Amino acid sequence: MQQRIGHLVPSTSVGVERWVAQICKPLAIEVSHPIARASLPEVMSGPAIAPSQSGELTRAAAQLADAGVGAVVWGGSSSDLHGAAHGRAMARWVEEVTGVRASTVTLGQIDLLSRRDLVSIALVSAGNEQTAGRVADTYLAAGFKIASVTALGLATAREAAELPVSRMRRVLKEADSLDAQCIVVAGTELPVAPVAALAERELGKPVYDGARVAVRTGLDLLGLSVTAPEWGEMFGARKPAGVCCDTH
Which chain regions cross the lipid bilayer (predicted)? Predict the structure, then answer.
């Protein structure tokens, strides 16, 4: 029986769908990944779900429900910027609409780091220093240590998505810190996926970015696993995670 993971993304996002089919190719016969776009900003206006946003969120989530998904992942950056509590609110809203388990990239990221006992992170953000600082605050509030922060100062999701892969590799190397146990790249747009495995070998530590985390979180919600080490450490383990929105 084919299982479906729904990815709910802001209208400007391109990162998740660039990689989801390629990463999950080993399960292509069993798993499909519909994408629902919501006419919502990449960054929502605040930690609460505003009335002006709830209707559009409901519409997009209902599209995924109609597609018969078994789990939904919210791929917007708002959870990074407004904290885990906002992520839980987003996930519960989607669960009420769709009737299936839901999570967010941020909650999935926190879960992956916690299960691997990774406490100290080198953080990379596509945005400016202010945005990077807000993302850092989210991880600090969740109990992590920030070894370093790199802000690329890119203005739009398109700029981030079109960053040359060769430069992305250099960014990961330059962002590393001796105190960091891993590299965390906020958001889903930067093209980390094609260089993640190589960077991990070069740095000797794992690299996590939002696009691949979105895929892994959806698989974990369904209890599925992809063994595809060419896409990095997070696709080398077979044991599924617990990423319920109430656990963080």
Answer: none
